[in-house]
Amino acid sequence: MEKTESHSQLADVGTLPLGRGLLLFAPLLVAASISAAILRYPLHGAAILFPPYAALTAVLLVSRRRDWIVYIAITVLGHFAVSLGPWSFSWVALTAVGIAARSCLAALLLHALLGPHPRLDGVASLARFVVAAAIVAPAAGATIAATNVVLHDSPETYIASWNARFASNALTALVMLPVLMELTRWLSAWNLPRLGRRRLIEIALFGATLAVSCALAFVALANKQLDSAMAFYAPLPALLWAGLRFGPAGAGVALSTVTIAAIIGTWHRAAGTPSGDAILRLQMFLFLTAIPILCVSVVATALRDAVHLYRALLASLQDQVAILDADGTVIRVNESWQRHADMPSPCPFERARVGDNFLLCCRHAAEILATLHPEDRDPSPRRLFHGTAAVLLGEYQRYETDYELKHDGQRDWFTIRVESLERADGGAVVTRANITARRQAQAEIEEQRRQLAHLGRVAVLGQLSGALAHELRQPLAAILANAEAARHLIERQPVDVDEIGAIHADVVAEARRAAAVIDGLRAMHQRRDMRLEPIAPEDLVREALRLAHTEIMTRGVSATWMVESELPAVLADRVQIQQVLLNLILNSCESMGEKDTTERLLTLGASESGSLVCFSVRDSGTGIPEALIENLFEPFVTTKPEGLGLGLSIARTVVDTHGGRIWAQNDEGSGATVSFLLPSAPRGAEPIALPDPSYAAPSPAVKVLA
Amino acid sequence: MSISEQARSLRVAIVDDEPAVRVGLRRLCGALGVEATAYESGHFFLDALRDGVSPDCVLLDMHMPEMSGLEVQRRMADFTDRVAVLAITADDSPETSIRWLARGALACLRKPIGVDELMTLFASVIEWQTRSQVA
User: Fold this and answer.
1) pTM
2) Is A481 in CB contact (< 8 Å) with chain B?
3) Fold that domain A459-693 belongs to in CATH
């Protein structure tokens, strides 16, 4: 397991083939060794800069680990070639061990801290880079080198030797490694940066400025015309330029140039080996200059990347975006906004361009609309004006509104959002999106649901028509019989006034009963508001059974009901819940058609279930096919060949609207039970009138499930 | 002798659980000069038959709780076959009337029932009685 992991890690780090690597990097490594010999002060063998460290580390970072030994060997051979003359073999060999160890350690640490492709792309990665390559690895290398010095009875002390090696390699890491890392990365991927003409001109100007400032400063330094501190600061403007405009690689090139110029200048000034104090001063200056310049370079690069990112984001958005400053002036718009602003639009705030004041545009729009349509004044520009002002003043974090735009006989809906901008100067971002399609889709769904609900009621009504006919024929029978009896009684002498009075009273009562039946019928299919009132569960069960009485008898079904005693009242719309219960009862009656009359059992129940009341309708029919039980309450799902499949979907809508839940299950043996929960009414609850959820748009008070 | 005069000699029983209909029909029969007795359920009517009451015909509601019209008709056979069954119903479906007629009801009529309907019913009872006497 561990082996596989290390393998995959190896594969991740660098994929450069050895042949191409050697072709590209062997000259680099050899050149670094030679320059190390040149940059060394003759007396102590320690360099102010040590290029092989940076070169080898940069090459190792882009190479396969199994090839590392080859590059290390080249560096060590180069080191031998330039060093064997003045020094003994063992001295050179131990120095080579130090060189290899330092670069390996730096490369491993950089991979561990910055990933397989280390880049300086932020202050955090720069800090890690400094710790790994400019502190830990140079310290380890310095320890080996200083031990070497002590072992070979050199005049240097251990501490002085350690300090000199550490300083030179730390400095090398800061001024040379960033640029060599970029260089090896470009070379290994063979992906050289493409530079435009303006960029090339800028680079040329920058190079000239850097060269002139370095030359002036360090010629003056060498000729002792300037104090060394004064001379060191002369190239600072050029270094800052590099940091701001050319990233870590450009900053590295500039720093390397200044460092080499400073070394040469210092050397000439001392006319031979400079004093330890002068070298230390030089190294301190370079070290303390390099870190801020590198910081500037990574921050400037990150900023440029962020700007590119946000511009690309703005350009890619379909929504229209405008950015406002603190007083409402448009300071930037995206392409989508610009396109919209170019189109003829009756709304001035839609035409706001960069430099226009968005608030004034809104007010202008409000004034125009007030004169154009005094009768149907559109309040949206005025609302938007106040909303935007509130966001700019910091009263709101965000303001959002929808508005309608009539244009060329077409109606479009937009949503516009003003969001406070979190920055020192304040301001806001205005986002506008066309939501016409979404609105239309919503309206269509709403309309379909509305039709469905009505269709469903009509379907239930059809099922009920038999029962309704029965309910009407009874009072009509009584009325007709009484009326005809009265006619005959009047013709007879003497007229029995008492009997005719009784007949008259009965006729009136029965006529009222017939009217009540029709009222009930109307209530069932009329579009009406939902009215929640506390109702005793027993009343609901009884009324439903009474309404279904004929159907139950005609079908030869035995109906029973069981309602727990002392049940709380439920908060429900009487007519709607009756409709649900009736529908369930009629379904049950139909499902038992194939059973023998003695086995047609219908049981209605109501029981307490926590804070809810559970109603159930149970039959001994054929049950519900398992395939249908999951989506039984979806529209157009039915077990009946002639059924529309709307009754249960409406039942679910009604129960959901009441804040309850409905479900069905097959019972053991035979038959099925449909149950639903309704919330119980708090004590002393008053009736509440709500807009009919199946006809009105969804409101927060009523949740509608389609 | 006209039908209405013949009808006055009929003794009619009315069985309907619906009080308004029951009272209305009894009044109508009374107004027509026909002797009518009303019963609110099949049980009471069957008890009366057991006690020796023998009407010429019975206006029998089909839909009643506890004991349906069909059940009443079936049990009536235990006491007499001389009572003509006139089924009345508030039900719309034609199948039920066919089923009744098949079981031997003399007529099956949908509510509401006025003088004309009642006289038609009585006429058929008289005709049935005449036929069975001849037979």
Assistant:
1) 0.52
2) yes
3) Heat Shock Protein 90 (3.30.565)
Pick from B18, B63, B113: CB nearest A553: B63
Class of domain A1-192: mainly alpha
Domain borders along chain A are 1-192, 194-316, 320-434, 459-693
Measured distance CA(A222)–CA(A269) in Å, rounded: 4
Query: Across A586-683, where does the E strand assignment appear?
Result: 601-609, 612-619, 661-666, 672-679
Residues of B in contact with A481 (CB under 8 A): 21, 24-25, 27-28, 112-114
Query: Cα distance from B45 to chain A (closest Cα, Å)?
Result: 20
d(CA A585, CA A552): 8
pLDDT at B101 over 60: yes
Nearest CA in chain A to B17: A474
Q: What is the C-alpha separation between A581 and A606, in angstroms, rounded?
A: 12
Instruction: Name every chain B residue with its beta carbon within 8 A of the beta carbon of A513.
Output: 20
0.95 surpassed by complex ipTM: no
The alpha-carbon gap from A503 to the nearest alpha carbon of chain B, in Å, equals 8
Size of interface A-B (CB pairs under 8 A): 96
CATH match of A320-434 with 3.30.70.20: no
Instruction: Read off the pLDDT of residues A40-68 as tens digits, 9 standing for 90 and up.
Output: 655 455 577 888 899 999 999 988 888 89
B37 close contact with A: CB closer than 8 A: no
Task: Using alpha carbons, select from A233, A116, A135 the residue that is nearest to residue A185.
Answer: A116
**Is the Cβ of A402 closer than 8 Å to some Cβ of chain B?**
no
- pLDDT computed for residue A6 by the predictor: 40
From chain B, the residues in CB contact with A492 under 8 A are 31
In this prediction, residue A457 carries a pLDDT of 65
- Rounded average pLDDT over B56-72: 87
Residue from the list A466, A481, A487 with its beta carbon closest to the beta carbon of B24:
A481
Question: Best interface-test mutation with B: which of A465, A476, A480 has the largest number of B CBs within 10 A?
Answer: A480
CB contact under 8 A, A474 and B24: no
Longest dimension (CA), chain B: 42
Cβ separation of A484 and B18 shorter than 8 Å?
no
Pairing status of strand A530-535 against strand A330-333: unpaired
Instruction: Collect all residues of chain A within an 8 Å Cβ-Cβ radius of residue B24.
Output: 477-482, 485, 506, 510
- Asked if A482 and A513 touch (Cβ cutoff 8 Å), the reply is no
Most confident of A145-149, A459-463, A647-651: A145-149
Segment A233-278, tens digit of pLDDT: 788 889 999 999 988 888 988 988 888 888 777 777 776 666 667 7
Contact list in A for residue B21 (CB cut-off 8 A) is 474, 477-478, 481
User: Residue A123 in contact with residue A299, Cβ under 8 Å?
Assistant: yes
pLDDT mean over A408-413: 76
Q: CA-to-CA distance for A59 and A55, rounded, in angstroms?
A: 6
Mean pLDDT of A582-590: 86
pLDDT at A677: 93
The torsion angles phi and psi of B67, rounded to 5 degrees, stand at -130, 120
